[in-house]
């Protein structure tokens, strides 16, 4: 029983073999997949995927790299979808200072609006943070994100930043990069994250774990992340999978 807490199986990279990819995940013990909708195009297809498969759930949100395109009507649309029975979180939302596609002030406004929405509807948030650790933490604090909590998706920051996020009711999720041989900091942080706040993910089709690095990622590969995490935590794979699946159920309100 493994939960992939962050995937994009509605992405065009899976158009040729999506059903086979999903069947492979099931065959490898993946019991639940949280699929992420993050803009005008991906939100409908993510929800449609969740409606098609009972073990797939969806998030709805607006990615920071697309922040400049979000209108007030889009925010209202996202709010209207929050009552859907398969929608379990708002995300992925946050700040991205690596890709220069949306101005920082626009990213900040869109980020804050969605945290406020999450508090209004009572859903957790999925955080995208790239090269913006200080500003993400500060915004989460200022907008009282601890009231709903959430997950720091594909965490790449320091232990000091992780501690601040843990203090604000967030889970810390690790993906394929933690399996890389040169991934010193992610491994050190994973070792320190309490087991009851740990999650695993793929971010498929991106960030495939070793030995598939550089190739298309898929949900079945989350087992490789689980194996690395279990080794770092010095517990059995079965125990690691059970704990992280229970954590995902608690965060996303799944039985």
Automatic annotation (TrEMBL):
GO terms, molecular function: DNA nuclease activity; hydrolase activity, acting on ester bonds; metal ion binding
Record flagged with keyword Metal-binding: yes
Matching InterPro entries: DNase_TatD-rel_CS, Metal_Hydrolase, TatD-like, TatD/YcfH-like
Keywords: Hydrolase, Metal-binding
Family annotation (PROSITE patterns): TATD_3
Binding site for a divalent metal cation 1: 6, 8, 92, 203
Claim: Repeat is one of the keywords in the record: no
Assigned GO CC terms: cytosol
Binding-site positions, a divalent metal cation 2: 128, 153
SUPFAM superfamilies: Metallo-dependent hydrolases
Highest rank taxon of the organism: Bacteria
Pfam families named among the record's database cross-references: TatD_DNase
NCBIfam families according to UniProt: YchF/TatD family DNA exonuclease (TIGR00010)
Protein name stated in the entry: Hydrolase TatD
Gene source species: Paenibacillus elgii
């Amino acid at each position: 029983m493994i939960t992939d807490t962050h995937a994009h199986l509605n992405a065009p990279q899976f158009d040729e073999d999506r059903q086979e990819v999903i069947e492979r995940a099931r065959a490898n013990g993946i019991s639940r997949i949280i699929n992420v909708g993050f803009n005008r195009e991906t939100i409908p297809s993510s929800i449609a995927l969740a409606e098609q498969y009972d073990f797939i759930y969806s998030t709805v949100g607006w990615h920071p790299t697309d922040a400049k395109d979000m209108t007030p009507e889009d925010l209202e649309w996202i709010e209207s979808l929050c009552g859907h029975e398969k929608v379990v979180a708002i995300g992925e939302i946050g700040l991205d200072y690596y890709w220069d596609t949306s101005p920082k002030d626009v990213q900040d406004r869109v980020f804050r609006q969605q945290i406020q929405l999450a508090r209004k509807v009572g859903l957790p948030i999925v955080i995208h943070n790239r090269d913006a650790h200080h500003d993400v933490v500060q915004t989460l604090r200022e907008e009282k994100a601890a009231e709903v909590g959430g997950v720091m998706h594909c965490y790449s920051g320091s232990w000091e930043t992780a501690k601040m996020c843990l203090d604000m009711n967030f889970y810390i999720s690790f993906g394929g990069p933690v399996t890389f041989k040169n991934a010193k900091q992610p491994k050190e942080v994973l070792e320190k994250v309490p087991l009851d706040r740990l999650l695993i993910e793929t971010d498929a089709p991106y960030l495939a774990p070793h030995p598939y690095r550089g190739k298309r990622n898929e949900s079945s590969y989350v087992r490789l992340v689980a194996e690395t995490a279990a080794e770092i935590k010095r517990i059995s794979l079965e125990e690691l999978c059970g704990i992280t699946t229970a954590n995902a159920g608690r965060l996303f309100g799944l039985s």
